[in-house]
Automatic annotation (TrEMBL):
PANTHER family on file: RIBOSOME-BINDING FACTOR A, CHLOROPLASTIC-RELATED (PTHR33515:SF1)
Localization annotation: Cytoplasm
Chain segments carrying region Disordered: 113-143
Protein name: Ribosome-binding factor A
Species the sequence originates in: Thalassoglobus polymorphus
């Protein structure tokens, strides 16, 4: 269970790193990055930063290289802005959740479009679906 302190520290690190990346970081490899959330263990020695990167795999790889190159600078920003006994060692992880949700949405849209006739109307109406369900229930009860 996360303590309130680790949750506050994680959120503070997210804010510092996010603003530093957007406002101050001048590495051309690092663009279209969103800091989603930060995981910090109870000892506060490390911080795993989950990011979302807009672009293909090459852009993702370059962005992670740029962020890892700027890791020391970002840690110094954290040390300057937060009152911590130890500055956590940062690691960056690309969060695939958003990409996966986009893929699922595309597949659902494809399935939905397959269920439409050429006029754009649903091939199976809700009434047909309800009748099928009723028929199945009646058939099960007779068995």
């Amino acid at each position: 269970m996360k303590s309130r302190r680790t949750a506050k520290v994680a959120e503070a690190i997210r804010q510092v790193v996010s603003s530093a990346i957007v406002i101050e970081l001048r590495d051309p490899r690092v663009k279209n990055v969103t800091v989603l959330h930060v995981e910090v263990p109870s000892d506060l020695r490390t911080a795993k930063i989950y990011i979302s990167i807009l672009g293909d795999e090459k852009a993702e790889r370059l962005t992670l290289q740029g962020l890892n190159a700027a890791r020391g600078w970002l840690q110094s920003k954290i040390a300057d802005q937060l009152q911590l006994r130890l500055t956590p060692i940062l690691s960056f992880v690309s969060d695939q959740g958003i990409k996966k949700s986009i893929e699922v949405s595309k597949k659902l849209r494809e399935i939905y479009n397959e269920d439409l006739d050429p006029d754009g109307e649903a091939l199976i109406s809700e009434e047909d679906d309800e009748e099928t369900s009723q028929d199945e229930l009646e058939q099960e009860s007779t068995d």
